[in-house]
Design brief:
The protein is an all-alpha fold. Helices cover about 65% and strands about 0% of the residues.
């Protein structure tokens, strides 16, 4: 399939240079990049999200604390996917 994409100039230049250095077409370079991104998203989507739960008595976790803990879990998942 053929399509037209709008790509920022600096990204296009970097991708063109890297694909050339790898000896592959720019089309193949972009196909591989999209495949990798989709696989990463699919793997990430299959993980169950475990929210931190406190057994302490008192007020519920604040919104900011929940966002911070969720970001920590996301970072841990991202680091795990790089292994």
């Amino acid at each position: 399939m053929q399509t037209t994409l709008r790509i920022k100039d600096h990204l296009y230049r970097r991708a063109k240079a890297r694909s050339s250095a790898l000896g592959q077409s720019l089309t193949r370079f972009f196909e591989e990049a999209v495949e990798e991104r989709l696989e990463r998203l699919e793997r990430r989507g299959s993980h169950k999200v475990v929210l931190p739960v406190s057994t302490a008595r008192g007020s519920a976790m604040s919104h900011e604390e929940l966002k911070r803990k969720t970001a920590e879990i996301d970072l841990a998942d991202d680091l795990e996917s790089l292994k």
